Structure formats: C-alpha cells, structure tokens
Predict the structure.
Amino acid sequence: MFSFLLYQSGQTAQHNASATATAQTQAHNNATATVLARQNATATAFASTNLTATAVVTSHFPPFTTLSFYDPLNTSSNSNWSSSTPCQASSNGYQVSIAQVNTFEYCSYLPGTFGEFAYQATMNIQQGDCGGLIFRYVDSKNLFLFEVCQNGSYNLNALVNNQWSYLYTNNHPSAAIQKGLNKQNVLAITVQGDTVNMYVNGQKIDTGTDQDLTSSKFSTGSISLEADDVSNPTTVMYTDALVWTQ
C-alpha cells in the first residue's frame, strides 16, 4: 500500500508538472490566440472601413466612373463650400436653411465647374419642405435644379434668363423617396447632352431633357445644395457629396 502511495505520489508530481507545463502552454497559446484575434479584428475593421469607403466612392452611373471629388460635408471640409448663416458645416453634415416663405436658398461648391457628369449627395430634411441638387449654375438667374420634397414628390426645374420652367406643372410623386422629416434620401443626377437622369436611393426615377443644356451658356456650371421653403421654414442637412466624370 505504501509503495503504491509512493507511486501515486510520484505520478501526482509528474502530473502536476505536466499540468503546469500544459497550462503554461495553453496560456501562451491563448495569449497568442488573443493577440491574433485582436490583429484579425483590427484587420477586419480596417478592411471593412476600406470596403465602406470604396462602396461610398464607387460610381453606379456609367460612363461617369472617374471620381472627381468626394466630400463628407463636415467641419473638416467646409472650406470647399459657401460659409454663411444659411450655409453651415458641422460634425453632422452641411446645413442649408431658409425661413422666407416661397423662397429657396442654395450653398455652392466653390473650387470648380462641371459639364457632363454624375452628382450625388445624401439629404435629410430636418424641418420644412424640400431640398435638392443644383447643377449647371451660371448665376442666380440661370441654373438647373433637381428637387425632392419630404412629402415624397420631386421635380426637375430650369431657371433660364430668370424664367422658371418645370418637367411637371406640379411635383411628381415617387415611391423611391422616403417621406417625412429626418429621413435619409440619397439624391443623384447624371447630365449628358440635353438629358438629365434622376435617381433617389439608388433607383432611377425619371429622365428629363432640355435643349438649353447644350447651349454655350450652360456648357458648364457650378453645383450647389438647396433648401426650399415652399410654405414652412426649411432646414436640410447634407452629407457625402460626390462628383464623377468620364
């Protein structure tokens, strides 16, 4: 019995040493696994960020696939856009506001002008009526506007020599538009020749043509973001403005 106990005692010591070694190995392996997991998590997050960034800047509007600019429209990029009381950048986006009834306000991208291109921005109407994308802006009396309203309607408007014309006499409804305040809608247009294609949330909703777009006056123009007080003070927040060219 005694020798058996001695044998067991020796085995226990061996087992304890083995268990200690195993535990140390497992601890090392666990630590290594933890480090690898963290590295993998970091790599996954980095890859995810890159994929997200790539998805944001990838054009879905051929032949306009060359990124001309991407602006997240926050405080770090506000120097590219008008800065005034109606046009204010914040960490949440670029705010355009108007309080005067039946009046619209626009805030312009300052660095350059564009001819044939695709133009996109994400819009959130926080209060009021409508917002939209202004393009081929020559001056305050000559511009084009794709406007989308929180009641789920839209229109394509042209101001030529201070005279307005419209694709529709009354705004046209679209199921692609998310209705209501504080709803995100991604607006986009393509302009090629006399043709304007209109998109909301990745869906093509309409096409309009205007011969003035082919005139020398409107061969190029600047772009802006708009707020329209149809009958209520309006504040619109924009993020992620992009332009693609050929």
Q: What stands out?
A: Helices lie at 2-57. The first strand starts at residue 66 and ends at 71.
